Amino acid sequence: MSTDANARERDEASLEGGYDPEAVESRWQDRWVDAEVYAYDGDPQRDPNTVYSIDTPPPTVSGSLHMGHLYGHTLQDFAARFQRMHDGEVLFPFGYDDNGIASERLTEKELDIRHQDYERREFQKLCREVCTEYEAEFTDKMQGLGCSIDWNNTYKTIEPRVQRISQLSFLDLYEKGREYRKKAPAIWCPDCETAISQVEMEDDERHSHFNDIAFEVAGEDPAREEFVISTTRPELIPACVSVFVHPDDDENQDLVGETARVPIFGHEVPIIADDRVDMEKGSGVVMCCTFGDQNDIEWYQAHDLPLRVAIDESATMTDLAGDYEGLSTEEAREAIVEDLDDEGYLRDRWEITHAVQVHERCDTSVEFRVSKQWYVEILDHKEEYLEAGQEMDWYPEKMFSRYRHWIEGLEWDWLISRQRDSGIPFPVWYCTDCDHEIMAEREELPVDPLSDEPPVDSCPECGNDAFEPEEDVFDTWATSSLTPLINAGWDWDADEEEFAMDNPELYPFDLRPQGHDIISFWLFHTIVKCYEHTGEVPFDATMINGHVLDENREKMSKSKGNVVAPEAVLSEYPVDAVRFWAASAAVGDDFPYQEKDLTAGEKLLRKLWNASKLVDSLAPADPDEPAELEAIDRWLLAELDDAVEELTAHLDAYEFAKARDRLRTFFWNTFCDDYLEIAKEREDNPSTQYALRTAHRTFLELWAPFLPHVTEEIWQALYAEDGKLDETSIHVRDWPAPQGYEADLEAGETAMEVISALRRYKSENQLPLNADLEAVSVYGPVEGFEDAIQNVMHVRELDVLEEPPEITTEVAAIDLDYSTLGPRYGSKVGDIDAGIESGEYEIDDDAGVLRVAGEDLEDDVFEVELERTYSGEGEMLETDSAIVILE
RNA sequence: GGGUUGGUGGUCUAGUCUGGUUAUGACACCUCCUUGACAUGGAGGAGGCCGGCAGUUCAAAUCUGCCCCAACCCA
């Protein structure tokens, strides 16, 4: 058995052999969870500024993990891991959203049951059982992403504690006067038979017909016989309550004040002027039905029109529809059109495609129904919510405009009651006599009015002793919008008679991550709720991630069949490589998933692994710091300081792509390609040994947020002390800080140029890179780096020249500094350019000026570029700041 | 239809807010090279005039206007 296999057998981190991500990654994932490396030790006394808390929107457990989850959570994890190292204490919780229609349907399907057959609590119990299995699977997958979630801090949106918080939230907003129950037109889904909110609607293109229907003008001596109305919904004419004409519509002005007779049904309705009529559409005359669309509702309210309900809660025609009673709206539409045609009222009919508003869950087109519903008042606080949004830092900033536009476009208060069985019940009863609202006692929550008794024996309003329970449940968003309060342990303190949090140090949360598609409802609703409860904006910052598209930049969708499953990706590539890819896009940008991008990550892991092996072979693990570092080593550490500083700034600003690229370039090009090659020639040098190890440790720490597995493996193999993992893990170390190394960066840069020039020389002359060079002279600032150049390029004799070598020069070009020249000479710049181009200029070295186009240019605006010709022995190589002579 | 965001070599992308003239890097491509870790490596090379048009300016990928295309949000 090889040492390699032995090591793996013992489950110990080891640098033997090649990197084996498959074995290493799952091993660390398990250990991190077992050792609770990412556990948050809650301490209410802690200074909130030293805790970094994340509030993440819980995913629906019944859905499977998709690339969006993978991407979103990976970004959150970059922030969490960086902050954990940088600031110390991090809360990265996790929630399972199992409250809602999705998990209800899942349970029905899984157990082959109908929720109607069960009492609500019973059904919810079944839901929780079914969801538990899915949650376990989801947990596994999440842990497979290497996210540093605190698995001790999880919640489910249907669990009793969350139900209690939801109901407390309802009571609190009720007491604050932010909620009301009102009989009013509401958006209604006839398939789900529930009211829904504005956010649950979406538009869908549907085929339909426009019907031109003739209405007679009633009364004696009317202005004209009839007029025509175009409608896509003839089944609504029994619900017609008025006809509208625009006040500026000269052609139809004669109708205003008249009475129209509705065809077939024969009832008469007034014709009214209103500027909400769209004159461009159809004949300019429109009917108002209760209710066809939102305009109808406005008219109904503005003109105090009667209510005619022709369609019931299941989209079936009512008795108002006469002969059509009992038909579905679809059937009624066809039947009515046919009868209109028979009776000569149908003047035209043609096919169209138009957008209809549908319920996003079931794609059923919505109706508007008058019903008694609970609302959260939001329209009167639009300004405040806008300000709350402004107070947050948005990453990227541009996403704020989506939030702003959403709020500006709000037209409805938030409808929070749903006529569903499963969900969190309203803790309310009503007096059967006076309809007085009886709220549950806070201590009793969570309650279910369907099975629990109200807290009073008789109505405090009228003394009646019979009550009716509220059957409705909360909109799931009413609960999902409480996640910051759930995470902070918000509850009613009965002794103090006020709301309090178990962990107030977490609130407001430092970061709220989410996709750009849910800004308008999830983020918005969360701000509404938390702001109303606490008076504070719940988040300091929000990070909006883009969407993962397919390789052709198209949105992934099941119908297109272009969905890439995370499982498929993770079975092929290391998680660390996938994370490296996830860091490649600017936060907020959509970006394509391209398999080839993952190989870049794989290559980096291999490079990091191999470089670590080399470092390990070149220097003892923990060398002492020499009194004085040599120039080349000090140079590396000074460059490292710069990198650390920039990287920290990038990560602080959620600029993961910039951090990733900066670190990769520095690690690969500067450290591996330049410094390691030099270090190979300086093996026993204590200065180099110290720099090597210092840089290597720092690199592992800097890479750790991006590549948690490979860095942990190398760290544990080389540097970890004995002890428990939650203390020795690289992920709980302090983030590197610049050490203040000072070096001659110019000399270092010049030395690298010289090395590069010599490499190019060998390459062009088809020499191996380790071929000996007899003698090399350098003219340029490379002080302190002579040995480095000499050793790494195998130069037998290196000479640093005090004076320029024997070269003759002639002017090759004149470089102008336009940023200085432009403002100074303005429109003369064109002439100056032309003069230089044509060679009509004179350089006066003594005066230090360039005479061209009648101007004397000062020496700060131009630079003479010389063509050098070497007239001595050997060959000359030029770099930006040095001249190299090879003999 | 309205709004938002974006359109940079074959692909992905930096730079655009704070205009300055040789536009960043990676992948792919071509040539060469076994440097004591990595050939899944290294050294080089070719390849774009920055969606289109017009304008502002001495100067525009960068500012303004219009147009085209794409995605998203809202109708």
UniProtKB/TrEMBL annotation:
PROSITE patterns: AA_TRNA_LIGASE_I. A motif ('KMSKS' region) lies at residues 555-559. Catalyzes the attachment of valine to tRNA(Val). As ValRS can inadvertently accommodate and process structurally similar amino acids such as threonine, to avoid such errors, it has a 'posttransfer' editing activity that hydrolyzes mischarged Thr-tRNA(Val) in a tRNA-dependent manner. A motif ('HIGH' region) lies at residues 59-69. It is an enzyme of class 6 (ligase). CDD domains: Anticodon_Ia_Val. One of its GO terms (molecular function) is valine-tRNA ligase activity. It comes from the Archaea. Residues 633-775 form the Methionyl/Valyl/Leucyl/Isoleucyl-tRNA synthetase anticodon-binding domain. SUPFAM superfamilies: Anticodon-binding domain of a subclass of class I aminoacyl-tRNA synthetases, Nucleotidylyl transferase, ValRS/IleRS/LeuRS editing domain. This is Valine--tRNA ligase. GO terms for biological process: valyl-tRNA aminoacylation. Residues 1-22 are annotated as: Disordered.
